[in-house]
């Protein structure tokens, strides 16, 4: 009998650890999601700047100096946009990995809870079930 209690307590301890890991993974997913959104906003801002520069470059009355400054800025923005796009892709992949990790932990928690129920002989509602003999012979 004491072995069963110890096993159940060990399983519960493992469930508690997995629950903490799930909470940590969930927080990491939220942080990754926020980082993705921030990178997207930065990428969109750079795209808007590029559109603005392209519009300014259309003016025929630009001096060579102004045009050169705009072209240099355009090149920097294009480089920034490329890097931000890569960052967004990387962050999205990281977020997806974290979501998968969280899902795996949830499955592990569910398995442990099932194992605990089987070990403890309790039903999901926490009540012990007994099988009554069939008296209708």
TrEMBL record:
Positions with biased composition (Basic and acidic residues): 95-118
Coiled coil spans: 15-49
Region spans: Disordered: 95-137
Alphabetical UniProt keywords: Coiled coil
Official protein name in the record: Uncharacterized protein
Organism field: Chlamydomonas incerta
Lineage, uppermost ranks: Eukaryota, Viridiplantae, Chlorophyta, core chlorophytes, Chlorophyceae
